[in-house]
Every structure is written in structure tokens, then in C-alpha cells.
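ok here's LysR substrate binding domain-containing protein, seq below lol
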Amino acid sequence: MFDYSQALFDSDIHTLNIVHDVIVPIQVIAAVQRDVLAQYPHLTLNWLHRTRQQALRMLKSGEADIALMPNRGQLFPETEIDFRGVGSLKIKIYASKHSALSQKTGVTMKELQSETQYLTENFVAMDVAFAKVSPKIRIVSNTDLLCELLKQEGWAALPALSMTSPCSGDFIELSVEEMGEYKAVGLNLFYRHGKDKSVMFSDMMSVISRTCQSALAF
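and the structure came out like this:
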């Protein structure tokens, strides 16, 4: 049987630094860590929250090995960065269960425009229809903080998978008349060009891709 721990030291990959957007559900991150460490138990796996611009710089400099970022409808123009799709996030609209919006059987885009909208930093730059709806936008860098503020007022577009945690009981999914059941936003795995020439790195990316696709099938 192939000795993964021996391959680890032979390939000189002892640490894997993964940078990620705050929109990536913690369930996906936990599943990836579980599956990667199941094959490479001696690997040190670091998870670093960064903006898209920071992630790109870190990939180029070698500070990061992989970036998990949502697709914003365009490719990185830099030729030294490659990517592969690993599934789609199902984005839905949520508000506090105490919000006036939550008392309605259905809401309109016009009603959403009259309420405060919370956005994470990278969502501001994304080219999706619901990214910027309300003129009353508040940008928050941390999803946990966003959810805490959302308890007080407003609404937010969040991955449905993220709202399966215990704290999600504070929120209600809104049915928006002009929107379908959800909006799909692709999740991509970015890495520096040529890095996949390493057998071990290529194998780890395959594990991460399969795990993400499985977790996002929710």
C-alpha cells in the first residue's frame, strides 16, 4: 500500500496554507480538513481568511498554496494563476425572525430596497443581481459579526449551508417574488500555475474538489 506519510516527507510538503473567503461555509472547511488529514495525517493545515485581492497576492508570492473563492463572473487576468470549479453555493435571503420582513409570506425587491442590507467585503465586488440591492448597505468583514448585527435589523444574502448551524434558529429564509428558490454562485479553487505538477499537491486538490462538491450538494 502507498505510504502517504513517506510521500509527505519525500515531496517536502509539510504545510498547506489555504486562504478562503468568509462566504465559504464552515461546514465545507471542516469537511475538507477531515478528508485531507485522513490521507495526510502529518500535514499541517492552516486556514486563513483573506480578501480576494490578498488571496491573489499570497498565491503569487507563495505564502498561500490554495485559495477557495467565489466566482465573480470573470477570470483572474494573471496567467500564473489557475483554477478549477468545485461546486456552487446556494445563496438565499435571510432576516431576523423578529424582523417585519419575516412576518410576510413573500417580499418584493422593492421591500428589500427599503431595508438595510448587510454584505461581506467580497460580495461588494461580485457581479451578481442580489449583491447590491438596497441603498442602505453595510459592509462587514466577518460572517459571525454579520449574523449578530442581522439579529437587530435588515437582511442578508447567505449560503444556505451556512444557515444549518444551531445559531440559524434566529433567522428566517425570505421568499422573494422576483427571485427563484436560490441563486447559485460558483466556488473555485485557485492555485499557482504549475503547482499541480507535484503528485502530492495534485492529489490533495482532487481530495479538496471532491469534498467541496459533496458538501455543497446540500
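fwiw The radius of gyration is 19 Å. kinda neat tbh
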